[in-house]
Amino acid sequence: MRNSPKLASREECMGCHACEAACPEGSITFSGKGFFTYPEVNTDTCIGCGKCEKACDYVRFGFRNDKKDFTQRFFCAHNTYAHERRLATSGGVGGALAARAIQLGWQVCGVAFDEEMNVAHIISDDAEILEKIRGSKYVQSDVAGIYAKAIASLRAGQQVLFIGTPCQCQAMSTVVPASLRSGLLTCAIICHGVNSPKVWHEYVDFIEKKKGRKLQSYNFRSKDRGWGFGIERAAVKFENSRVKYLPSWKNLFMRWFGMHYILQESCFHCPYRIEERYSDMTIGDFWGIEKLLPQEPTREGVSVLIVSTERAMEFVNGVENLSLKETSATLTPQKSLGGFTERRSESQIAAELERRQHFEEEYLKKGFVSMAAKYPPQNTLQRILYHFRYRLRQYGIVKGELKK
Questions:
Q1: pLDDT tens for residues 219-257?
Q2: CA nearest 307: which of 288, 326, 334?
Q3: Which has the closest alpha carbon to 79: 88, 70, 69?
Q4: pTM, 2 dp
Q5: Residue 292 burial by CB count (10 A; 0-12/13-18/19+): exposed, middle or buried?
Q6: What domains are defined for the chain?
């Protein structure tokens, strides 16, 4: 019997791999020649059980699996270990949570680079994982097989802390059997959208050829020069070379990210950009913290920590190296937290999506090098004008979204 389950379309698919993980026959694989891969069903082996469709629906429409009566709480937070805070992307909260889980004997699942600069989820109960998963990676991570490993750990009696995008957290919650879900704690990042692994790999190849050396490490958001909007810079290290710092506005990959050219299409209509979060916890940069807590020191980074379940609150209370200051649940999402909720109009989203689709079509025809020449990073004058408009918007003189 040949079956053809109804899964998300290309425009809807989040690439979370929940359908693949839910399939009992291994009939679903991901492939594609564009910016992202999409599910393909082997109709010869599909038994028509519908588990993939159910998993896909849960992720796409943002169903909460375990609704509980708990008032979501917002905190300004940072890691009290200065070294960890400096190395982290913002306040080092994810590292503090992961370290506590390791201390308790849990498995921690987070995103890391491998030796070939691939971005993928890994899982371990060894403290060495803390170094590997530290810092943001602005690329869609490979989660193939990770859900099965987490489920195996849960079946073995270990608890699991899963850190990922909101859709990945929901996918993990969806595919874990209800009988094991009490052992799973999810922590979502505040996500602006995931970038193409294909473009990332070709960017790495581009800068390696330009430098004539293999890329050894890449920190998307180094804080060696401080933390704050407008001073973000990558720390790039090639073999047998010193670390070089590249401001985001001069960074080709981050430029395309800021313009939303290389995002997953579904990110333009993300169901998770809402105040009431589905994961147990949510973390991210606390942009705009000076509006709520003017005295908070920010040079070394500040995080927002949003706790959405009682179990997560109990866990957070057990993290000793975490500074917490509760903030207003009413004001926090409105005054700060870029990317937390959707602020663009439908017309703005439609225009961005059209530009993104045109960019991908052109890219696939012409290749990376040609696109790098046609769509370069900002020059100095463009950057000055951008900051001028940003300040005007801050003072309410102009409104609307700014393009980086």
A1: 999 988 777 766 788 999 999 999 999 988 889 999 999
A2: 326
A3: 88
A4: 0.92
A5: middle
A6: 18-60 (3.30.70.20), 73-194+264-335 (no CATH), 197-261+348-378 (no CATH)
